[in-house]
Amino acid sequence: MAENIAVGIIGAGRIGQVHAKSIAYEIPGVEIKTVADPFLTEEIADLMTSLGAKRVTRDYKEIINDPEIEAVFICSSTDTHSPLSQEACLAGKHVFCEKPVDLDIEKIKETLAVVKKSGVKYQVGFNRRFDHNFASVKAAIDAGKIGDVHVLKITSRDPAPPPVEYVKVSGGIFYDMIVHDFDMARFLTGSEVVEVYAAASVRVDENIGKAGDYDTAVVTLKFENGAIAVIDGSRKAVYGYDQRVEAFGSKGSVAIGNDTLSTAVISNEDGVTSEKPKYFFLERYMGAFTEEKVQFFDAIKNGSDIPVGGFDGLISVVIAEAAKRSAAENRPVKISEITDIDGGWK
Amino acid sequence: MAENIAVGIIGAGRIGQVHAKSIAYEIPGVEIKTVADPFLTEEIADLMTSLGAKRVTRDYKEIINDPEIEAVFICSSTDTHSPLSQEACLAGKHVFCEKPVDLDIEKIKETLAVVKKSGVKYQVGFNRRFDHNFASVKAAIDAGKIGDVHVLKITSRDPAPPPVEYVKVSGGIFYDMIVHDFDMARFLTGSEVVEVYAAASVRVDENIGKAGDYDTAVVTLKFENGAIAVIDGSRKAVYGYDQRVEAFGSKGSVAIGNDTLSTAVISNEDGVTSEKPKYFFLERYMGAFTEEKVQFFDAIKNGSDIPVGGFDGLISVVIAEAAKRSAAENRPVKISEITDIDGGWK
Amino acid sequence: MAENIAVGIIGAGRIGQVHAKSIAYEIPGVEIKTVADPFLTEEIADLMTSLGAKRVTRDYKEIINDPEIEAVFICSSTDTHSPLSQEACLAGKHVFCEKPVDLDIEKIKETLAVVKKSGVKYQVGFNRRFDHNFASVKAAIDAGKIGDVHVLKITSRDPAPPPVEYVKVSGGIFYDMIVHDFDMARFLTGSEVVEVYAAASVRVDENIGKAGDYDTAVVTLKFENGAIAVIDGSRKAVYGYDQRVEAFGSKGSVAIGNDTLSTAVISNEDGVTSEKPKYFFLERYMGAFTEEKVQFFDAIKNGSDIPVGGFDGLISVVIAEAAKRSAAENRPVKISEITDIDGGWK
Amino acid sequence: MAENIAVGIIGAGRIGQVHAKSIAYEIPGVEIKTVADPFLTEEIADLMTSLGAKRVTRDYKEIINDPEIEAVFICSSTDTHSPLSQEACLAGKHVFCEKPVDLDIEKIKETLAVVKKSGVKYQVGFNRRFDHNFASVKAAIDAGKIGDVHVLKITSRDPAPPPVEYVKVSGGIFYDMIVHDFDMARFLTGSEVVEVYAAASVRVDENIGKAGDYDTAVVTLKFENGAIAVIDGSRKAVYGYDQRVEAFGSKGSVAIGNDTLSTAVISNEDGVTSEKPKYFFLERYMGAFTEEKVQFFDAIKNGSDIPVGGFDGLISVVIAEAAKRSAAENRPVKISEITDIDGGWK
Questions:
Q1: Closest CA to D39 of D75, D64, D73
Q2: The GFO/IDH/MocA-like oxidoreductase domain covers which part of the protein (chains A, B, C, D) (predicted)?
């Protein structure tokens, strides 16, 4: 029987806990060796221990310097993703880095250069690609069921806006929210974006506007292969987390709806009522959080390609920057205006 | 008992026949006095007679000059809409004019000036406003069920492209097809468009491209009230006539699907299959074609306002022109760049 | 051009008016010559005249004795169906008789004997066979899409119970309501019922129980071809007129839902709400009322078979009687216990 | 921190493995101490060890006699359920027993008497009560959303028939399959069955008929509270595992559909196709298998009532026997004909 893969997790906040739980409960052959978090609490330490962590510390160096640890999950704050990624790679660890790799495009490129040199597996946490619904759209397209994709429509609505403080440091709606949809659009069309037009507004909370961000946006993407994608995003859908896509092509269309807690439909004098979409991203995407790691560990074990890598992390941020500029200047912005993405980053 | 309203129909092609049939079968208190068509065939004459037409002629002047005729339906080719509208108005007839009033914005304004002076009722044939599904979206919005509209999404796909010869004279996809959706977006948001951005491509038939038109388009509209609309249009959906809308607002969303010939769902080894959308616009919109006329004749009888008038005809063509220019120049185009719409046309 | 078929309508109540309207508006080549009703009011007379009736009278003999009238619609009270059917047949008229032909099985047989001898077309008003949804189930079965039918499930719920006075003379829930479903079950299975088991109760209105009837019933039917059908009926579904069927067979299933006034779906904090079923049978079955007559007049013109005839009228009442007896005696009742149906009635 | 509850599992076949996996992966605070199976293979032993079992043996006595083991799962063949239940209870263990407790009603009563005397928790594995969909129907009924239940409809179709050898020993379709639906009907109506009528046939596989069983059945249940339930069951639905329920009452209805692997809908020339129901009971009910144990262990820890107990195990078999007799004798059979259930078994 093969040895378990020993894992270190840097950052024990919400997303770090998600990864720890699915490793503990869902993924055989992997064990959590060490969890590091500078703001470690007793409660978190207890949780991580109950999930099998052998060591809990405030010092991430205990992970980087541990020769038994093969893979590192970077779940700390965004500004640490790049430097930690580089340290881990240079220490020969495989890295699973939460998105975004960085808000600064040049730093991402720097990190990708280190990844390339070190030869480790480097996966970026675009979990939605692994969601059963989105994956079924990809499968239908790849199977030729809708022919060539002409138009792709993505709906991306959060149930409630984040705190304004978060918006101020996150890079804004294109960086912290719609970046997932940029990745999804590339994934589903199988092509690269050449130009972005974003119409954005403040309709949900004027404080978001005062912080220099938008809460409502409609983004049009033109792709190399001729496909056009349109993403509508909102910080607040009162009925829950609304994540849908429809791909329309030469031979038909494929569309997904939201998952619900049950299929129950109640008919009474008021109408015919079914359940709202699952409210929270963890409810909706729990399976996806597991599946992305299953494929990450498979790639480590079998030497196969990882499913979503550094270039995907880079280009999604480049598109976000183009969208931000487009909204600010009210004009279509070419990807090539933002940065050179042809420099071998793929 | 009130006298029947006597109607004249100019143009006995497909849409003229639609109006004749629904007057004959569905609308009490109205009778077809005369039908005029320069290309009249015996077959059409027989049909119109069986629908109750008392006279069938090649000469539309027999309608204009008949003092008994109160209302005229203009169903002839687009280039005749303006002059016939003006003649009929000057003769004191109420006019129901098929869309578009004209491809030339100045001519529409000219016609609207004549309408205004003559004081007749002048309705433009934007039938979709009267469709039970679209009307239910309007009713939900007006009842405050989704709060303020933030984003409006319209899907508009024809089952098959028109002949290239038609495309050459129709003004193109924005004028002959998406113009309906421009009107719908104004109707549902209850606001006026200020700016248009159109991403368009040729994916269905390259001959459409050679004729200078597009067959696929995604159009973003910004409205005075802050709403953003996005319309995706295609000349060809292999599964049928796909006409949907989703309005998303501060308190929720309302969406409509397509009508089908039955609610049957078949489950077998291949999956769970329901019916395609009704294939043809006459199947889908027959009820709407009747309802628009019911309201037209009500306005005549009761002196009430007509539901969709000359300004609606004008502004939809202005938006189409803005979309065409936007696609050609790849930039957002302001409505105010196209023409002055504040000159009392409303 | 062929002469119009002249029609007489006996009985100008709700169902008589339905037939008059659809003849007037929807069916070319047919005209209403005379309408007879012993309780004729001025209002009804005006209505019928506006629908084209040339003569309105209290005396049905004016129809029977009019040699110009080819077809008679019998829309009077149930107890007159048999004698009027016989009179009309003997006068050589084709007959469209509302259901049931009679509450007395022997009288139905007597009538069928007259029909047979006179050689006219005799159609019974089982309109649901012509509903677009039910017809699509029949089409799927006939096309072999679900293989052999193993189980058929019919849901039949009225929006509100009829007056108790009606229940007292109608023959009860099996005769006045579920009789439609007995016919539907025969139509869809393409087989004859051999045995009936009915579980029935009073849950909606105890006055219905005091009148000797039930308001809730579940009826199991065994068919010659081995199919089993189960019908659940209720006098009152607060959400509207609920008429569905599901056929399950060796190769799959086909199911229909209800029609709604629109496809609108509203998502908000309370859930995801769509429209209730159409509330009233005229809303739901208007198309079916037209289609049944289209086929009736086609049979007259072309000499083809009528789609639903005297035997269907007979057997459905026999099944109703078996169901009534089953509920009363709490045991399965064979059709052969009720009457001999093999005596050449088909 | 509380001590873990130590569990023994008797029977390591399919259902034993299901319980072991969900204890290992999904339920904190519980550990598998010993697994016993007389037909233990190395493969199964390895699996159970990887799931945390400390000991794997062929001798179930090692579980019964282990004072550290608090709870025993009985997952062995049906004929051993009663004696093992009794042994475990007498040894003071809490028991989770797979259904049915026994095919012999007297033996079930004997076991229940032992359970009662020993004072342990005794849960029977009617997992469907814990399924998110069925549970949502129960919640809607309990919340009064549909008022009093008038009619309950349950659809229960397996994707494929079991081997005929299984049918010969299982007690037949009412004992091995529809027994779940009998329990569900009691659970949802909150009332006890008084009478059963079963119409059954052989349509799927004539070998099932030769073995003395049926593969298709429609069962009507009358309840103490006046509700009528109807269950349609089939051994073979080619499109997958079809498990639905609709409850209809004085204030409306609640219905559930099946779960699918994704919400994807493909529209093309052939129609609009969505996914089939999940094919296999483990796919559909995995969450329910976990939830039933969560509640079982909660009852042990907190001394609360178990959610489904010995009486539920008894009465469901009594109903199955009544259904079997009803089908054989073609008459409604009263529960009181089968056995006395009022003898304090509840």
A1: D75
A2: 134-254
Which of C87, C82, C44 has its CA nearest to residue C69? C87
Give the closest of B145, B261, B262 to C268, CB-based: B145
Residues 6+ apart with CB under 8 A from A144: A251
A-D contacts (CB, under 8 Å):
89
Lowest mean pLDDT, pick from A141-145, A190-194, A337-341? A337-341
Burial class (CB in 10 A: 0-12, 13-18, 19+), A343: exposed
- CA C262-C263-C266 angle, to 5 degrees, is 105
pLDDT tens for residues A224-252? 999 999 999 999 999 999 999 999 999 99
- The chain-wide mean pLDDT, for chain A, equals 95
pLDDT mean over B73-80: 96
* Residue listed under structure tokens 């959610």: D307
D242: which chain B residues are within 8 Å (Cβ-Cβ)?
Answer: 267
Beta carbons of C252 and B267 less than 8 Å apart: yes
Look at D216 and C150 and tell me if their CB atoms are within 8 Å: yes
Banded pLDDT at B17 (limits 50, 70, 90): very high
Tell whether the model's pLDDT for residue B342 goes beyond 90.
no
Residue A48 is predicted with a pLDDT of: 95
Alpha helices of B162-259 — where are they, by DSSP H? 164-170, 173-176, 179-189, 206-210
User: Is there a contact between D146 and D252 (Cβ–Cβ < 8 Å)?
Assistant: yes
Is C242's pLDDT higher than 70?
Answer: yes
Cβ separation B262–C26 shorter than 8 A: no
Which residues touch D256 (CB under 8 Å, ≥6 apart)? Answer: A262, A263, A264, A265, D133, D134, D136, D137, D244, D245, D246
The C-alpha atoms of residue A223 and residue A234 are separated, in whole angstroms, by 23
* CB-based contact D140 A28, cutoff 8 Å: no
Mean pLDDT of C138-144: 98
Candidate from B220, B238, B332 with C-beta closest to A331: B332
pTM > 0.90: yes or no? yes
Please name the residue of chain A whose CA is at the shortest distance from the CA of residue B203. Answer: A150
User: Looking at the predicted structure, is the pLDDT value of residue B129 above 70?
Assistant: yes
Burial class (CB in 10 A: 0-12, 13-18, 19+), B330: middle
Distance CA D157, CA D231 (A): 10
CA gap C297, C4 in Å, rounded: 11
| Burial degree of B261 (CB within 10 A; 0-12, 13-18, 19+) | middle
CA distance linking residue C199 with residue C72, whole number of Å: 38
Say which residue the tokens 């049918």 belong to.
Answer: D167
CA A304: distance to chain centroid? Answer: 21
pLDDT category at D2 given cuts 50, 70, 90 is: low
Which residue in B has a C-alpha nearest to residue A233's C-alpha?
Answer: B151
D229 to A227, B238, C205, D127, D247: CA distances (angstroms)? 53, 44, 20, 20, 9
The answer to whether residue B1 scores a pLDDT higher than 50 is no
Q: For residue range D41-63, list pLDDT tens digits in order.
A: 999 999 999 888 999 999 999 99
C285 burial (CB, 10 Å; 0-12 / 13-18 / 19+) is buried
Tell me the C-alpha distance between D163 and D177, whole Å: 13
Could you report the predicted ipTM of this complex, rounded to two decimals? Answer: 0.95
Q: Can the peptide bond before residue B38 be classed as cis, meaning omega within 30 degrees of 0? A: no
Residue B89 gets which letter from DSSP? H
CA distances from D41 to D7, D38, D54 (A): 20, 9, 16
Cα dihedral: B173, B178, B180, B186 (round 10):
-140
- With 0-12 CB in 10 A as exposed, 13-18 as middle and 19+ as buried, what is D318? buried
User: In the predicted model, what is the mean pLDDT of residues D278-297?
Assistant: 92
What is the per-residue pLDDT for C100? Answer: 93
